[in-house]
Amino acid sequence: MNNTLWKFLSLFIILAMVGVAGCAPPAPAPTTAPPAAEPSQPTGLAACQGQNLVLASMTDQYVAAFRVLVPQFNQASGANITLDELGYVDLYQKLIADFVGHTGSYDLMTVDIVWSGEFGANQYTKLLDAYMERDKAELQLDDILPVSWTLGEWQGTHPAYPLAGYANVLNYRQDLLAAAGIEPPTTQEALLDAAIKLTDAGNNLYGIALLGAKGPAVAQDYMAWVQQHGGRILDDAGKPVINSAENVEILEFFGELFQYAPPGATDYWWDQRETAFRSGQVAMMEGWSIARAGYEDPEISSIVDNVDIAVAPVAAGMEPKYGFGGWGIGVNADSTPEEQECAWQFIKWLTSPEMQKDWLKNDGAPIRRSTMTDPELVALYPWLPILLESFEKGDGDYRPRIPQYSIIQDALGTHVNAFLVGQETAQEALDAAQKQVEENWQ
């Protein structure tokens, strides 16, 4: 067979085979259908049906609002949120143990403004930004005052959501100041002068109540005075400058005020300072605005109708800027996705403009402009315009919201108290605090 004929026959055979293959029946369909797509996770209150969550709350005044509103949410959503009420130190310690041990004991937690950096940097709480983006049409975020975002923000993310904003204000006995012919002080120098004039130890009346107890109380009160005198705890590079000459001078001023505080003030925590003011023992007290409504409650206050507030005094010549604090609310990063979704629904419900009116009426604290300008609420709480002024010029960073905050607080809490009780000079106290911070800085 010649070569040409062989090539022709080979081509014919190949074409025949292709034709047979082209006429073959199609392959049988698979006997099982492909897996169906996972159903999308429910959102809205439906996401909470049957969910059991635990909310760890500081026993500040706003816990009264939780007691009223949490049952309402449970009824509306079908969830069961249990409230665990804890003191400041216990709350922090239990939360850290829960986070570090990944035990998931708490699904929701109140987050002090100064914990946001630590919780965010360590990813203890779930970042809420994806929820906020998803639900931004409902949230009315522009209504939340800018300073309120410091209650949970860390490096542009949100490990907690604003819950209860506090202004550091001057509470004063208007009857006592009027009788003495003293105007509410607007400067720190005038505050000291008024404290001197209003003190009458023989009649158990003192010019001012302060926090002096060793630990968080005295550390946080001293930092408020640093802010009001224009001082700083960190420099521009974020390094501690606790023992600066300016801060030593401020500590000496802080100590001088204690001469006009009740005996035992160097052991005062927040509740003891409040008791001293509500009982009529002192004429003035700087403190958080969350307490203001309680001064008109005759069951706990003997100074009803005799209290007024003003913005906190700052050093003469200083541009007014007022201490801001309070609490955010966070979601445990170790909770299940279903629990986290329900926790977010609770946060969204509680912080809505509609629920914020009930929140405030039950001893909560505001975060929204609409709440603070609502005519009904202003009529009930005529001090709201003062709070709004403080919020608008609020400084939410005077206590550094950084992961190392607890190191600073521990050092100041030990050594400022040591100064107040006469164990160290102001310079020695802040030198020791600076050294302690530097040794533990990370």
Structure report:
- By secondary structure, the protein is of the alpha/beta class.
- It folds into 2 domains: 49-166 and 325-387, Periplasmic binding protein-like II (D-Maltodextrin-Binding Protein, domain 2); 167-323 and 398-440, Periplasmic binding protein-like II (D-Maltodextrin-Binding Protein, domain 2).
- Helices cover 43% and strands 14% of the residues.
- Helix 9 (216-228) crosses helix 17 and helix 17 runs antiparallel to helix 18 (426-440).
- The termini are far apart.
- 45% of the residues are buried.
- Residues 1-39 have low confidence and may be disordered.
- As a percent range, the share of helical residues equals 40-55%
Tell me, what is the CATH class of the largest domain?
A: Alpha Beta
Instruction: Quote the beta fraction.
Output: 5-15%
Distance between the termini: 90 Å
Largest sheet entry:
9 strands, mixed
Structural class: alpha/beta
Number of helices: 18
Q: Please, what is the average pLDDT?
A: 91
Count of DSSP strands: 9
Classified in CATH, the superfamily of the largest domain is Periplasmic binding protein-like II
| Radius of gyration from the alpha-carbon trace, in angstroms | 30 Å
Query: What is the helix/strand order?
Result: HEHEHEHHHEHHEHHHEEEHHHHHEHH
